[in-house]
Write a structure and sequence with these properties.
This is Transposase Tc1-like domain-containing protein. By secondary structure, the chain is an alpha+beta fold. 45% of the residues lie in helices and 19% in strands. The protein has 8 helices and 7 strands; from the N terminus they run H-H-H-H-H-H-E-E-H-H-E-E-E-E-E. A hairpin with a 4-residue loop joins strand 6 and strand 7. Helix 2 crosses helix 3. The protein is elongated.
């Protein structure tokens, strides 16, 4: 029995795809199959859509994703492997590190290097805030009379290393997204320098504390 209706349409679509894969353009296909170029374009589009397979279903359910996101909020420094093990222990679902990363990225979380900042206790934060409020209205002449100084540590042996953290854009200075630093340790050289509002000052270096 000759094909009819939908079966004929599907066969035509397969023929169009076959000719297109051989490098034939719409014009040559329309002549070979005795149909218009518009029909070729329409049939080719619908035939390729029919051939597409749905993507792989997500490994984690929406409830399991929420559990993962809560775990990340509680422990921003956890690695993807640690998170995968946590999901498995709580849900019984085995997931790969790639699945964890894709799920976090889909929810706006990306891995970044931790920001470093001096370790501040509550008393330090309070003092900084009071200083800022007390000097907020000072004029340029006042600030030009200040001698500004700073120091930095250059590591000679070993490495300071780095860690990653899961965070959203704009969360880089949240406390749980940073790693505190302290000024101690060996195998380093300290550099100290100063400046004013008018000109740079001098600098010096040496081992240990300055």
């Amino acid at each position: 029995m000759a094909p009819h209706g939908r079966e004929m349409s599907q066969n035509l679509g397969k023929e169009i795809i076959s000719l297109h894969k051989k490098g034939e353009g719409y014009k040559k296909i329309s002549k070979a199959l005795h149909i218009s170029q518009n029909t070729v374009a329409k049939k080719y589009g619908s035939a390729t859509i029919l051939q597409r397979r749905p993507g792989r279903p997500q490994k984690l359910t929406s409830r399991q994703e929420r559990l993962l996101m809560r775990r990340v909020e509680e422990s921003r420094h956890a690695s993807s492997l640690q998170l995968a093990k946590a999901v498995e222990s709580q849900t019984g679902v085995t997931v790969s590190r790639d699945t964890i990363r894709r799920t976090l990225q889909r929810n706006g979380m990306h891995g970044y290097r931790l920001r470093r900042k001096p370790l501040l206790k509550p008393m330090h934060k309070k003092a900084h805030l009071e200083f800022a409020r007390a000097h907020a209205e000072k004029g340029e002449d006042y600030w030009d009379s200040i001698l500004w100084s700073d120091e930095t540590k250059i590591t000679v042996f070993g490495t300071n290393g780095f860690k990653t953290v899961w965070r959203r854009k704009g969360e880089d200075f949240k406390e749980k997204c940073m790693v505190p630093t302290v000024k101690h340790g060996g195998g380093s050289v300290l550099m100290w320098g100063c400046m004013t509002g008018w000109a740079p000052g001098f600098s010096t270096s040496g081992p240990g504390r300055l």
